[in-house]
Amino acid sequence: MPVTDVQTDTENRTLTITADFAAPVERVWQIYADPRQLERIWGPPEYPATFVAHDFTPGGRSSYYMTSPDGERFGGWWQFTTIDPTSSFTFDDGFADADLNPAENMPVSTNRYSFSATAGGTRAVYSTTFATADDLQKVLDMGVIEGSTGAINQIDALISG
């Protein structure tokens, strides 16, 4: 399994997941740049994602929804702040309503995904910071660790296929 470490830090309101992939950085990067590939790994396996927009540029926005096994849709959005090709990108991540508009009263996180070459391929570090410890706790209670770990662990099948 690619995920090698998960750390939560309530004091600093962060969740950090580290994963190692047996593929070059450029291959792992392409997954995040291409919405059709991103759909195959974003969200837990039982909640496949559909990206309806994906402007992977500084200032660009993505909108998506995940579909539950019962057919219920859960929306989300990303607003990109920086893109450093093959190295890192930063973005705000939030929940969305049925029309994919930002959901009121739901946590918004600031994220930095970074990728570096290792002897065996790529190390990815997924860092998420929340505005408050309560926001972090809310997503922890929603199962973000299990969902994120399940999503990231899908990358191996995509890069080997």
Task: Please describe what this structure looks like.
Belongs to the AHA1 family. Residues 22-159 form the Activator of Hsp90 ATPase homologue 1/2-like C-terminal domain. Pfam families: AHSA1 (PF08327). This is SRPBCC domain-containing protein. The structure is a single chain. The chain has one domain: Alpha-D-Glucose-1,6-Bisphosphate, Chain A, domain 4 (2-Layer Sandwich), CATH 3.30.530.20. The protein starts with a strand and ends with a helix. The protein has an eight-stranded antiparallel beta sheet. It has helices at 25-33, 35-39, 133-141, 144-152, 155-160; strands spanning 3-9, 14-21, 49-54, 61-67, 73-84, 88-96, 108-118, 121-130. By secondary structure, the chain is of the alpha+beta class. The chain is globular and about 45 Å long.
List keywords for this structure.
43% strand; single chain; Alpha-D-Glucose-1,6-Bisphosphate, Chain A, domain 4; 8-stranded antiparallel β-sheet; START-like_dom_sf; 161 residues; alpha+beta; SRPBCC domain-containing protein; ASHA1/2-like_C
Can I get a quick summary?
It comes from Gordonia hydrophobica. With 161 residues, the protein is an alpha+beta fold.
Protein topology:
Layout: E1 3-9, E2 14-21, H1 25-33, H2 35-39, E3 49-54, E4 61-67, E5 73-84, E6 88-96, E7 108-118, E8 121-130, H3 133-141, H4 144-152, H5 155-160
Antiparallel strand pairs: 1-2, 2-8, 3-4, 4-5, 5-6, 6-7, 7-8
